[in-house]
Amino acid sequence: MASEQRNPDKIFIKDLLLRCIVGIKPDEREKKQDVLIHLNLYSDLRQAGISDNITDTIDYATLKKKVIELVEGSSFYLVEKLAESIAELCLKDSKVQKVDVEIEKPGALRFARTVGIAITRERS
User: Fold this and answer.
1) pTM for this prediction
2) How far apart are CA 75 and CA 28, in angstroms?
3) Strand-by-strand arrangement of the 9-22 sheet
4) What is the SS3 assignment for 13?
5) Nearest 5°: CA angle at 53, between 51 and 55?
6) How far apart, in whole angstroms, are the C-alpha atoms of residue 75 and residue 23?
7) Model confidence over 64-112: pLDDT tens digits?
8) Active-site hit among 31, 81, 95, 105
9) 33-43 and 75-76 as β-strands: parallel, antiparallel, unpaired?
10) 69 CB contacts (<8 Å, ≥6 apart)?
11) How confident is the model at residue 8 (pLDDT cuts 50, 70, 90)?
């Protein structure tokens, strides 16, 4: 019998509303604008479920603080670069096996509620 591939567990952070410099237009380079970030952090959470100990899981409060520091201090031209930087930061945590990063720029497109991108990166 072939071994079954187990779907990884995940911790998610939704609707993290931050402000940063991101864009290619001159006005986007002058003042911070809203970005809405969603993260899925994939990890094996079974041990944490047994031990009830923070050291056996992803400390999402600490990771959120690091993401805030990165984003609010950033100045990228492309949302894609911002997403890549967030993914790299998340994968520095040895417990994160894979991460989905979604970023929206509300108000970036006239007549659209939002525009955004989504990427998935895995530990190599």
Assistant:
1) 0.92
2) 10
3) 75-76, 9-22, 33-43, 98-104, 116-122
4) strand
5) 120
6) 9
7) 999 999 999 999 999 999 999 999 999 999 999 999 999 999 988 899 9
8) 105
9) unpaired
10) none
11) confident
pLDDT in tens, 30-59: 999 999 999 999 999 999 999 999 999 999
| Domains defined for the chain, CATH in brackets | 11-122 (3.30.1130.10)
Identity of the residue numbered 71 = V
Whether residue 13 contacts residue 60, with contact meaning beta carbons closer than 8 Å, is answered with: yes
Structure tokens at 122: 């895995």
- DSSP β-bridge partners for residue 121: 99
Q: What SS3 class is residue 85?
A: helix
Is 32 among the catalytic positions? no
